Amino acid sequence: MRVGIISVYTDYHRRGRHHRGALQPQIGPLIAALLPPDADVDVVNDTWTDPDWSKDYDLLFISFLHSDFDRARQISHYWRKRGAKTVCGGTLASLYPELCRPYFDAVVIGDPEPAVPRVYEDFCAKTLKPLYRALAYRGDLVPLPRLDLVARHQVLPLAFEVTRGCPYTCEFCVLTGIGTRHHTRDLSTVVEQFNAARRLLRPLVPWHRRWISIFYDNNIGGNLGYLRRFCDAMRPLGMLWGSSVTFNVVADPANVERMAAAGCRLVYVGLETFNPAALSEMRKQQNVLDDIRRVVDLCRRHGILFTAGLMLSPRNDTIEYIERIPRYLEECGVQVPTYICFETPFPGTPHFTRIAGSAEPPLLPEVLLSDLDAYTLVTRPRHASAEDFVAAFKQTHTEVYGLRRRLTKLADDLPRLAAAGSLGAIALDLAEVLFDAQPLARDRSYIAGTDKARPETVPLTDADFTSAEERDRIMKPRQVSDAQGRVLPHWLGAQAVYSAKGRIRVSAAPMPVPVQSIPRGAIPDPAH
Ligand code: B12
Ligand code: SF4
User: Fold this and answer.
1) Ligand 1 atom having least distance to the Cα of 7
2) 170 lines ligand 2 (CB under 6 A)
3) Which of 33, 247, 274, 277 would suit a FRET pair with 111, their CA atoms being 20 to 30 Å apart?
4) Exposed, middle or buried by CB within 10 Å (0-12, 13-18, 19+), for 411?
5) Which ligand 1 atom sits closest to the C-alpha of 113?
6) pLDDT tens for residues 328-371?
7) Residue whose CA is at the smallest distance from ligand 1 atom 81
8) How far is the CA of 222 from the centre of ligand 2 (A)?
9) Does 220 sit in the ligand 2 pocket, CB within 6 Å?
10) CB contact at 8 A, 273 and 251
């Protein structure tokens, strides 16, 4: 039995390159750990390399982000034609299971832990179901991911999630789309798994790739009491680590001190914008614009590198604002953010639903799902033409990622991090600033509808299609807006999975089994 797990990726810079950066999708190792130990498992991070098209799989799990859906259904078709059964999951699959169903043998809504073992069992019994509805999160079912399967490729392979979800409700975020929830796990299990991960990796990768651990939580500070206990548990281990947190977490000196003592050397914070109107529309009330400088300094004083991402808001930002971003970055001490992208209406998020209801067509004409990668303008700017908006983006981007600015950042950060004795943070800063230059592509318009096509292909041939209709169904890119820029109606049918406190919404939950249909002694099957 050969099982494949593919995390699909298309290069959002449209060069068709793989993403060799430190952040790699972690769903492959997690699903692999949910399969029986004797399963012959192949984890393919398409970020790192193309799938090996010559391989045979019996069962193939496929994970993808919104903009990778076209490639995902082509990959699914490719292996279905070669005899595999394919199973998809993730946020788009959870929000739009009906959209995914025709392209995969099974769709999983929600978390993988309760579902994957059931999918595997059903597959082995030849009773695979088309839909596996969500079950409540069970922290005790979260295994140590099979880090050994990706260690060779991953820059920082000591990587897993401690918590799941995020208690905030930012309007643009897919986590808000599937339903706000935040779950923690038993800390003694987390520490046991962390130690087991170190043992697992010791013979596989050199020490410098085990030196710093990355926790892939969306917000490791989503529960402050838990974060404090987590720090107290990490401290005796003497390890260095980094993770994402919200601004409010690092705004409190007591938290920063505790995190630093526990080995934290990098935080990623979604700063998103310096524009108060955009921030308020994003519902990002946890950020405080005039406090950023203090917080960046506070982190650096404790030897923690503060990294942040920025978005341009086409509905709120003016050209003058975009041109002023380099000054804002200088003033607050961030200097060079991890990225500058466009705020993107991912279908299924409250942001998407809100702008879809606008009187005027909210999007540019004929936006494709694959354009929703946050590095292509898809929303009609309110205060400028699309061309002027993108021209301002390019000018600011070039200034911010220029060599002069990157060296200024190092000159600003390194003495402070050195004073705190933080070698780990210095190494991370050097790696990000020197090796992640993010050049703009000359052959791109960055505007949906006129941008160059993505170059990635799946080696499907005529023999893989029984008709022209089938070819169209698999190959035609999925569209999000019509020729006027109105949202196509079927995108308005997203269904959230979770409601308050992570409870499963009725529509996403397994159907209750009628009492009279349960044979005596049998356990009701919760997964379908
Ligand atoms: C690694 C990462 C990347 C990597 C690789 C992404 C990839 N898959 O190709 C890189 C660096 C390339 C990347 C790029 C971007 N990313 Co990114 N990234 C992440 C990150 C940090 C970790 C993902 C991860 O591995 N998590 C841990 C694993 C275990 O969980 P998971 O993948 O979230 O999956 C969960 C469920 O969805 C489900 N699931 C997923 N797949 C499957 C499959 C099956 C079969 C089953 C049963 C279940 C299942 O199981 C998991 C647990 O519930 C997340 C934030 C985070 N901490 O999760 C953001 C995140 C996924 N990225 C995000 C964004 C916005 C971006 C960017 C636009 C950059 C930016 N401006 O922020 C770009 C472009 C992405 C695009 N093409 O649309 C968003 C969501 C985007 C989306 N379209 O859904 C996230 C959620 C961050 C956020 N809160 O905004 N990213
Ligand atoms: S804080 Fe980050 S992860 Fe949480 S809802 Fe906002 S964008 Fe999403």
Assistant:
1) 8
2) yes
3) 247
4) exposed
5) 47
6) 999 999 999 999 999 999 999 999 999 999 999 999 999 999 99
7) 65
8) 10
9) no
10) no
- Atom in ligand 2 nearest the alpha carbon of residue 270: 2
Mean pLDDT of the chain: 94
Say how far apart CA 243 and CA 182 lie, in whole Å: 16
Please give the Cα distance from 353 to 363 (Å, whole number).
Answer: 12
**Burial letters for 22-34: b for 16+ Cβ neighbours within 10 Å, e otherwise?**
bebbbbbbbbbbb
Which overall architecture, per CATH, does domain 143-435 show?
A: Alpha-Beta Horseshoe (3.80)
Ligand 2 atom 8, closest CA: 173
Please spell the DSSP secondary structure of 378-419, one letter per residue.
-BPPSSS-HHHHHHHHHHHHHHHTSHHHHHHHHHHHHHHHHH
For residue 5, give the ligand 1 atom closest to its CA: 45
* Neighbouring-strand partners of residue 504: 498
CA-closest candidate to residue 416, choices 433, 406, 429: 429
Ligand 1 atom showing the smallest separation from residue 23 Cα = 1
Could you tell me the sign of the dihedral formed by the alpha carbons of 296, 437, 450, 472, in that order?
A: negative
**Domain range list for the chain:** 2-138, 143-435
Is there a contact between 55 and 4 (Cβ–Cβ < 8 Å)? yes
C-alpha of residue 157 to centroid of ligand 1, in Å: 17
Measured from CB, residues less than 6 Å from any atom of ligand 1 are: 7, 9, 12, 19, 21, 23-27, 30, 47, 61, 63, 65-68, 87-91, 108, 111-112, 115-116, 161, 173-175, 216-218, 244, 309, 339, 341, 346, 373-374
| Residue with token string 């705190």 | 420
Q: Domain 2-138, what fold? A: Rossmann fold (3.40.50)
pLDDT in the model for residue 438: 77
Look at residue 439 in the predicted model and tell me its pLDDT.
83
pTM, to two decimals = 0.96
Paired tokens of 144 = 């140590």
368 within ligand 2 shell (Cβ under 6 A):
no
Task: State the pairing for strand pair 2-7/59-63.
Answer: parallel
Tell me how far CA of residue 476 lies from CA of 53, 275, 365, in angstroms.
Answer: 21, 38, 17
- Distances in whole angstroms, Cα of residue 351 to Cα of each of 171, 172, 210, 345: 5, 5, 39, 6
Output the residue whose Cα is nearest ligand 1's atom 88.
173
Task: Say if ligand 2 is within 6 A of residue 168 CB.
Answer: yes
3-state secondary structure of 297: helix
> Taking every pair of C-alpha atoms in the chain, what is the biggest distance, in angstroms?
74
Q: What is the CA radius of gyration of the chain?
A: 23
Which residues of the chain register pLDDT less than 50?
A: 514-528
Taking CA atoms only, the protein residue closest to ligand 1 atom 46 is 89
Task: Tally Cβ neighbours within 10 Å of residue 18.
Answer: 16
State both tokens at 201. Answer: 């990796």
Ramachandran angles phi, psi of 215, nearest 5°:
-95, 120
CA of 40 to the centre of ligand 1 (A): 25
